[in-house]
Write a structure and sequence with these properties.
The protein is an alpha+beta fold. The chain contains 7 helices and 14 strands. It is 25% helix and 27% strand. Its EC number is 3.1.11.2.
Length: 257
């Protein structure tokens, strides 16, 4: 089975591209980020028309996450949002049981500019995510925490170390928070498949980043031990970044036995 993730960067603006990708690749489960729509504006019928059921956690104009499942097995919501900051109204996390898996769609804060309150929020959010992730590990279920982490974990995960050196995505604190999750027992699927790095999932719209292949890897799929034992492949659907009116991210996916 194939579980995928796609930061669509506005579900209404890029719905044709999203439907195109779903129909061409047919992932069993697809996690979406940056849907940028209020709950009532989510285009559910567009997905049911092509055989997908959905749950979502929306926010008007910003953020927003969703989980789609192909066929009759609708995702059963487990949790939306993370505990730890009652005043946090950002729609960045939704978790569900679907097809025998625990799946969370994640849109982690960017954190720029740093230093500053946005970076502090990013680091707190990562610790809140780690707390939830450890609770999931304790359940010993096949689980996947996938989405846009806004973290460049290694130097070989970016086209240019100097260009990103001051960015919140590549700060030592961001990397350390990500590595703490790996240390808890999660497996980075794309890194496992591409240990030498050099694989990008994001290309900015500015400065000809796509034609120059000036990208970096910030979309990650973390697998619990029970899921990692079943992994057979993990890749990036890079070509979709080059299509007309594309998202600035490419879809990523992992296959499990």
């Amino acid at each position: 089975m194939r579980i995928a993730s796609f930061n669509i960067n506005g579900i209404k603006a890029r719905l044709p591209r999203l439907i195109e990708w779903l129909e061409e690749t047919r992932p069993d489960i697809a996690c979406l980020q940056e849907i940028k729509t209020a709950d009532e504006g989510f285009p559910e019928s567009a997905f049911t028309d092509i055989g997908y059921q959905a749950i979502w956690h929306g926010q008007k104009g910003f953020n927003g996450v969703a989980i789609l499942a192909r066929g009759d097995d609708k995702p059963v919501e487990v949790q939306r949002g993370l505990d730890g900051e009652p005043d946090d109204v950002h729609s960045r996390y939704i978790e569900a049981d679907v097809m025998g898996l625990r799946v969370a769609s994640i849109y982690l804060p960017n954190g720029n500019p740093q230093p500053g309150p946005k970076f502090d929020y990013k680091l707190r959010w990562m610790e809140r995510l780690r707390t939830r992730a450890r609770a999931i590990l304790a359940e010993e279920v096949p689980a996947l925490l996938i989405g846009d982490y806004n973290v460049i974990p290694h130097d070989d995960d970016t086209y240019s170390i100097p260009a990103m050196a001051d960015d919140a995505l590549m700060q030592p604190e961001s990397r350390a928070a990500y590595n703490r999750m790996l240390g808890d027992g999660w497996t980075d699927a794309l890194r496992t498949r591409n240990p030498a790095g050099g694989v990008w999932t994001y290309w900015d719209y500015q400065a000809g980043a796509w034609p120059r292949d000036a990208g970096f890897r910030i979309d990650h799929m973390l697998l619990s031990p029970q899921a990692a034992d079943r992994m057979t492949d993990a890749r990036v659907d890079k070509e979709y970044r080059g299509r007309e009116k594309a998202s600035d991210h490419a879809p990523v996916w992992v296959e499990l036995r």
